């Protein structure tokens, strides 16, 4: 950080706090949606909220950034080679989770649900950009667009 202009006091305080809060909330949302998927696998209607599974990668990435910013700006210490290596690997892992995990969860959950007697309900499922809600129903439920409202 030598020879660089120091960030303002506001940025040194607010930026790490926003990264910490964003990272923690992202991880909590991911855990909640995984819990709801596992818990709901015995219900008549199961929703796979594919967009929520991006949050693991987002949370890991934001927490890693928060730690780096705290290390450099609050502790005013340069990152060691070891710490840089660790956080570089965390950054790569967060991108891998961000890109791969939603598809893996969708595939594994879909295979499990279909093997358990559920069927895909296209009328109740929808997609907007990368956010996709996939609905699986048991044979006792009629597939319709109104299922999500229940």
Supply the key terms:
single chain; 150 residues; alpha+beta; three-stranded antiparallel β-sheet
Explain this structure to me?
- This protein has about 150 residues and is α+β, with helices and mostly antiparallel strands.
- It has one domain (about 10-150).
- It is built from three helices and three strands; from the N terminus they run αβααββ.
- The chain has helices spanning about 10-40, 55-75, 80-115, and strands spanning about 45-50, 120-130, 130-140.
- Helix 1 packs antiparallel against helix 2 (about 55-75) and helix 2 (about 55-75) packs antiparallel against helix 3.
- The protein is elongated, with a radius of gyration of 20 Å.
- It starts with 8 loop residues before the first helix and ends in a 12-residue tail after the last strand.
Short précis:
By secondary structure, the chain is α+β, with helices and mostly antiparallel strands. The chain contains 3 helices and 3 strands; from the N terminus they run αβααββ.
Low-pLDDT parts are none
Number of helices: 3
Distance between the amino and carboxyl termini:
55 Å
Structural class: alpha+beta
Shape: elongated
Walk me through the topology.
Layout: H1 9-39, E1 45-49, H2 55-74, H3 81-115, E2 118-128, E3 131-138
Antiparallel strand pairs: 1-3, 2-3
Helix pairs in contact: 1-2, 2-3
């Amino acid at each position: 950080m030598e020879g660089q202009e120091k960030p303002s006091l506001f940025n040194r305080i607010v930026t790490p706090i926003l990264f910490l809060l964003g990272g923690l909330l992202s991880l909590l949302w991911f855990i909640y949606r995984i819990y709801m998927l596992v818990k709901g696998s015995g219900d008549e209607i199961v929703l796979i909220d594919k967009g929520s599974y991006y949050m693991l990668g987002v949370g890991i990435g934001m927490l890693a950034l928060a730690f780096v910013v705290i290390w450099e700006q609050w502790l005013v210490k340069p990152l060691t080679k070891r710490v840089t290596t660790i956080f570089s690997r965390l950054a790569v892992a967060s991108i891998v989770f961000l890109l791969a995990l939603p598809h893996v969860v969708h595939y594994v959950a879909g295979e499990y649900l279909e093997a358990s007697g559920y069927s895909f309900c296209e009328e109740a499922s929808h997609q907007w950009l990368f956010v996709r809600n996939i609905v699986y129903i048991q044979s006792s439920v009629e597939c319709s667009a109104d299922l999500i409202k229940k």
